Amino acid sequence: MSLRPSSGGRWRTAPVAALDYEIARERASALGRLGRALETALAALADYDNGSGERDAARAQLVQDASDALWYFMVQREACGLRDPRPVLRHYGVPAEVYARMGAFGRR
Fold first, then answer.
1. Contact (CB, 8 A) for 59 and 48
2. 95: left (phi over 0), alpha (psi -120 to 50) or beta
């Protein structure tokens, strides 16, 4: 992404390059934060499933939280230009149930 003006002017490339660098750093930082949040949500769901395995309201909320975290992560990845979801699903071991609910937000 570049924020250079379309026509002449007295812009120097150094300030624009610095801004591009800061934007790229923030995108990467946000992607890392959202990846850790996804890992945490998936771990909480896996821990619950290993403990009781019951399908109740608490588990439904954990699935919803994991699907929300997956949605946020995927949106940020797309903002970074990474469009294919398959590597994420494989790397994080996202359950099909979570992937199916991605983007379906409940009442807030």
1. yes
2. beta
Q: How far apart are CA 51 and CA 56, in angstroms?
A: 13
Structural domain boundaries in the chain: 34-101
The answer to whether 37 and 69 have CB atoms below 8 angstroms apart is yes
Take residue 47 and report the two structure tokens written for it.
């821990």
> Do 34 and 73 touch, CB atoms closer than 8 A?
yes
Yes or no: say if 70 and 105 are a contact pair by the CB < 8 Å rule. Answer: no
Q: Which contacts (CB < 8 Å, 24+ apart) does range 2-6 have? A: none
pLDDT by residue for the chain (108 residues), tens digit each? 555 555 554 455 688 888 999 999 999 999 999 999 999 999 999 999 998 767 799 999 999 999 999 999 999 999 999 999 999 999 999 999 999 999 887 665
Residue 96 to residue 62: CA distance in whole angstroms: 14
Whether the Cβ atoms of residue 61 and residue 76 lie closer than 8 Å to each other:
no
